[in-house]
Amino acid sequence: MSKMTTTAIFAAMMALSMPAFAQTTAAPTANSTATEAQMRPDQIRAEKFIGSTVYDVQNRNIGKVKDLLFDKDGRVDVAVIDVGAFLGMGGKFVAIPLKDIKMDNNRLTLDMTKEQLKSAQAFKFNETESTGTSAPPRDRNNNR
């Protein structure tokens, strides 16, 4: 074979193989989850949610969102609200199901009064907030 024929065959093989690589990319199926490209108007960022003031239906400040707790499926289960604190003292945490908190115009509203929240059962965080062990590693030099 001549160099020109070999080059032409090589170029043809390369041209034919290129679409094969492009076709190996999996097309989205009905069961695959697509990620969103932009935040929807009815969504709120966790960063803005945590620390936000919660108001009752009479527009009175009833507390601040301290934290969000997720269920085992990764969905936000409850919002922990700091109720009754004055200058960081005297308050308590109350867990409220997220479905009970209304979000409109960047405001969080709860159909409960501050007095109802103060009389609700207090929520306590676990002593350790990590998923690992709470025991410190053993000192290898002293525990032989």
Structure characteristics:
144 residues; 6-stranded mixed β-sheet; 6 strands; SH3 type barrels; 22% helix; 3 helices; alpha+beta
Which range best describes the helical content: under 10%, 10-25%, 25-40%, 40-55%, 55-70% or over 70%?
10-25%
Known CATH architecture of the domain at 46-119 = Roll
CATH superfamily of the domain at 46-119: PRC-barrel domain
In whole angstroms, the N-to-C terminal distance is 76 Å
The tally of helices reads 3
**Fraction in beta strands:** 15-25%
Q: Mean pLDDT, nearest integer?
A: 75
Q: Kindly name the structural category.
A: alpha+beta
Looking at the structure, the CATH topology of the domain at 46-119 is SH3 type barrels
What does the largest sheet look like?
A: 6 strands, mixed
Note the run of SSEs as H and E.
HHEEEEEEH
Low-confidence stretches: 19-23
Oligomer: single chain
- CATH secondary-structure class of the domain at 46-119: Mainly Beta
Strand order of the largest sheet: 4-3-2-1-6-5
Shape: elongated
Record field, number of beta strands: 6
Structural Rg: 29 Å
Please render the helix and strand layout as text:
Elements: H1 3-23, H2 46-49, E1 53-55, E2 61-70, E3 76-83, E4 92-97, E5 101-104, E6 107-110, H3 114-119
Parallel strand pairs: 1-6
Antiparallel strand pairs: 1-2, 2-3, 3-4, 5-6
